Description:
There is one protein chain. By secondary structure, this protein is mainly beta. It is 14% helix and 38% strand. The chain contains 4 helices and 18 strands. The protein is elongated and about 85 Å long.
Amino acid sequence: MKRVLSFLLLITIMSSITVFDVGAQAQFRCIGDVDCDDKVTIIDATYMQRYLASMVDFSRLQRFLADVNGDQKSDIVDVTEMQKKLASLGSFYRERIDVWRSEILSVKCTENEDNYFINTEYHFVINCEDHEIPDEFRILIDDEVLVQRTEEKLFTYSFTDSGAHTVKVYCFDAFGGVSSYQLNLIAKDSKASESPRVTSLNFNQKNHLVTVAAEGGKAPYLFAFTIRMVQFPAPESPEQIPAYSSNFILKVDDVGLPYLYCDFCSGKNVFVPTRYLSSNLYYDLEAQAMDANGILSEVKIIQIKK
Length: 306
């Protein structure tokens, strides 16, 4: 009869356990607090038994908290240690984990940070703060996922196309925090020799598009644009202008005069944020051509009017 009652009591406790939100950030986590309610109770021991019986799944954080004796695994020994703790017969080897916010400090190439060439394998290292619970990373090259989820801080990649590339890394900590880092680089083609030249540069005043064309060298071509004589009123500081303006930013030259600048991009049709240009005035629109190896080869200037 006692066995039946004990079994029914265990079933009642197990059935009352719900799925806990372990993404919520707290001031600390106790070892053994697998339900993440900031205390260790019989519920945690029962929840642990359900995990060992494959009745529930544990997150990365929960698996760490369930390793009571610190042997890098969660098993029945940990459940026994938890029960001893609750009966005041033992103690955890670690009592608490302080909260952190993971942050990627840098993403660097171990071979060379200045020159990259196509069809060459490069090794990149993610530099971030180290914690007891390992962070997980998501890696994208030119917005294509290279690695979806990994705890490794090293990855390799070979660029097959010359030109501008982006390397983005997202860091996920155990408490749900996310930080990111972006590395911009140009991969060169060592076989490219001829430099490009700008064959045409036009501005469509109606749709505010700059159209540029080049030939020679090795595509894709990269261009930079500068528009001088930007008149005030202008933004209070030379901060980034909205993304729809093709990455144009407002800068100030050595004598304090503002101008618009668009960093190197591969687009042949570039939208100009003409709302930053005063009406009925002429401006110099300068296009700088760069070949796939990142070598500046020609500058072409036309005059435009808003």
